[in-house]
Amino acid sequence: MRYLVKKLVILIVTMFLISLLTFFAFHILPGDPAQLILGTSASPEKLDALRAQLGTDKPLLVQYRNWITGFVHGDFGTSIRYSMPVKDLLQDRIPVTLLLGLMVLVLTIAVSIPLGVHAARIRGRAGEHVINVLTMLGISFPGFFLSILFMWIFGLVLHLFTPGRYVDLATDPLGFFRFMFFPALAIAVPQIAILTKYIRAAMLDELSKDYVRTARGKGRSRTGILYGHVLRNAIVSVVPLIGMMIGEIFSGSIIVEQVFGIPGIGRLLIASVTGRDFPLTQTLVMYVALVIVVTNFAVDILIQVIDPRIRLQG
Amino acid sequence: MKKGRSDFILGFLLTGLIVALALLSLVWTPYDINATDAAARLLPPSLLHPFGTDSMGRDVFSRAITGARFTLFVAAATVGCTTVIASLLGLAAGYLGGAVDEIIMRLVDALSSFPGILTALIIVTVMESGKYTIILALTIMFIPSFTRIVRTGTLQYKDADFVRSNRVFGDSGLRLLLVHIFPNTFPLLLSSIVVGFSNAILAESSMSYLGLGIQPPAPSWGRMLYEAQSTIFTAPWCALAPGLMIVVTIIGFNCLGEGIRKRYLDRE
Amino acid sequence: MKKKLLTAVVLGTLSASLAACGSGASTTATTAATAAAEGSTASATQSADTGTPAQGGSFIYGLATEVDNLDPFASTTADARSIYFNIYEGLLKCNEDGNFQPAIASDYQVSDDGLTYTFTLRDNVLFHNGNPVTTDDVLYSIQLAIDSKITGYDNIDTFTAPDDKTIVITLKTPDGDFPAEVCQAIVPKDSDNNGELATAPIGTGPYELTDFAVQDHLTLTRNDNYWGTPAYLDTVTVKFIDSSADLLVNYQSGAIDGFVANGAITEQVDKSTSVINVGNSNAVQMLALNNTAAPFDNPVVRQAVSYAVDSDEIIDTACYGYGVKLGTAMIPGLKDYFDDSLTDTYDVDDDKAKELLADAGYADGFTFTVKVPSVYQVHLDTAQIIVNELAKVGITMNIEQVDWATWLENVYTNRDYEATIISVDGSIASPTSFLSRYVSDAGNNFVNYSSADFDAAYESAASALSQDDRIAGFKKCEQILTQDAASVYIQDISNILVYTDRFGGFASYPLYATDFAAIYQVQ
User: Fold this and answer.
1) Cα-Cα end-to-end distance for chain C
2) ipTM of the complex
């Protein structure tokens, strides 16, 4: 329980620091939102009125307090570029990015576990080298290069999907998944490579432990041990890594959404950064950071539930 | 055979090749990297143009090897700055402990909850885009992981016997830190530095791909890839050349990192 | 809040044309001889109609820049205007030949002194919201245009509605461009008090906006209550695609039916199933030099740079030859006004450039930075070529890419730059929209050009009563600009519209406009 409280306090402090960093980073930015909304031909009176309405005429600390209060109550402000509430902009995009992330996660886990286990089983044989080379290649391809290659090879040469023709989940669920499979794969490849390596290492680690020998001594089959105990323990030991992957997956999706033209959070984020739409960027950055911090917190708790021994180290 | 030997050999070969090409571009390139020639556009690879020419008739090979120079410079500067700053932070946090540790680590935690690319994007927006901004952005992006490593190392050696005995002999805190503790954290840090190189190259090319990194006409691999996208059907070599340069460089550094890890860190 | 002090600038008159290069404008541009009394006319029409029009169907149009604001009174990009051309209409409307034809007004008269315009409103014109257009709506829209500092509206003295079918506008001074200026949108009363039209436009045009998915697409649906000839297609979807490279991928994969391409992209399109329609973009691509920033405050230095820049090389290399060389701040599309004798004034001559530089005290050259908006690849490519050309005469040019918002703020509005590369288009089809920005105190004079001679020449040309004087007057203005090398005038990058041969009916205007009502599916 004490551990949980400590983690919770750290979570809150981290969230507070994130909000401070985000807010002040964006207030060093040159550019006056009122000016950006009204355009350059606006009269000084109109500008002043809008500044008052936006609250940008108040001292920074007051602005910060108002922003945080609004954020907590679900009021994220108004986008400068699109003149609509940030909340409305996010509503349609969050599910897209979350689904993309989820697909990446599922793909990663579905491929890495069998691959990692297999690599551990064939230790020392030629096949292992093939896996080693593949994982090395996997972590060496930048996401955008993979995306371009996928678009070219799978889209234009093999016609497995139509680049550019993104379809809504609601209008055509099958088409949506068909389209999203390739960007998801582009993000997943390096993650698969990393996770496979870790699972292999964790498996080997487990296999060398005493209980495996004991079990073997009792005459249990190799496969039974492998999948019954070793795999379970190995997976538990890589759960923290999966927590860390959430951030990586999001980073990947920022670029990949851009290349494939997927209307998700990442693409909105790049547009808001280049367009200096700072109420929007501020919210997006805060939102993403919160998702990552909270996920990591959840993973910590999950580990406690699965394997309380780790508490001793924490 | 020593552990990780094949990794070292491959790593040295690949990084050596790239570094050699980058150095070569300092003194000689087959063609002027910016010389355009409408008559010689989109030529396929040949003896005259080993990697072909791009849509403005520029020699892709000359640009790709010059790109290596820019990319390696950014990566080296980033890793260098990060190592210095993160070592100071990590040593302070680990050695002093208490409130200092708490403050540094909470800041590092907060910073690392932003995806790296996000931190870089924010900094590039706040500042004017260019070579030095991208170095600053990537440095800030890498500080958390490096700081954690140095701190862990410091904690590990702070109470080690040889440090204690030196303390008894009256060595000052600073001396203990710099002479006895820091060098011991170095193998750990070294593998991060090498992996940091490949991460910096990945990040720099991503940012340049988005148009937020090195400015044209300086050839950066990410930028070259972006420009090549429109001709990928008719002239795939324009995209493949910089793309494969990135991949080869990263594989090189990753192999080196793997070799270091296997030789010095794995205790299995 | 330094910007508060800034002079108001009408951004509506500036825009950067899409990264589009095109060819053969000289072969396709024809001048309509049927000039209206005052309106300048030009057109770059090319009939590419094939097959018979079918009713219905849908068309997906790809656009390389993102349209985020459809408010006709706000500062918007040329691309936004090319789209809302289909949504809004003014009292008059520009046609393909550059003539101004009645739209919301069914008829109009001009007094002999050119100061009083009397418009009669057309019966039964409905807004997209179903309400009829009334004089209240027209008066509201005129006031909004005045408040929004739309070009020409500051010259309005009075505007009244003597009865419920008539609008009378009196001007302070005669203005040959007034018919072009009243093409400005008419919107419902009180519909745009706070910029509401930006994302929810209400007009009277042949298409209405039915869906606006920010950053992704917008959908236009045929207005079945349209007063004129209704459109063929049921819907037009405009998809925003980030780069010209992606446009090609989308076109090849069938995700879009048509788009505006640049030279490089056009070369890669499958010509057997595509129609390639080349026209003028009606914009002046220039290396804009800040005339108050040293060393460009010295006309000799600007001339030297003009001699060093090789426009032909830029057209060939960056645009695959698809562009028309300019030499002055006027588009060839306005054929009567374009002084083609200026085109070769600064034919590339590196020795002359070096000589001039030495005269100006820069024998060893100098270094400057060009800020290029990163959304326009063609301008970035142009910059990369100019770097080499200037290097030959000892000038070092550094390129700095800036995003569009920063460009508007720092370069266009605050004029905090040394040089930039941009295409400037005209908001109306008239020489004034290209030349008025060089008047010393013009709010949109972002190159900070200042010349008493030019101001006087412009003044006399703009108030000229005869067409001949007007033409001679504006040509004089162009000559002064070229002599002073106010900037380096490169080319009119042509507009290349690429679409699948399943469609036809594309129309070109001497304006930056895409007329979706003319497009049909081939039977």
Assistant:
1) 59
2) 0.82
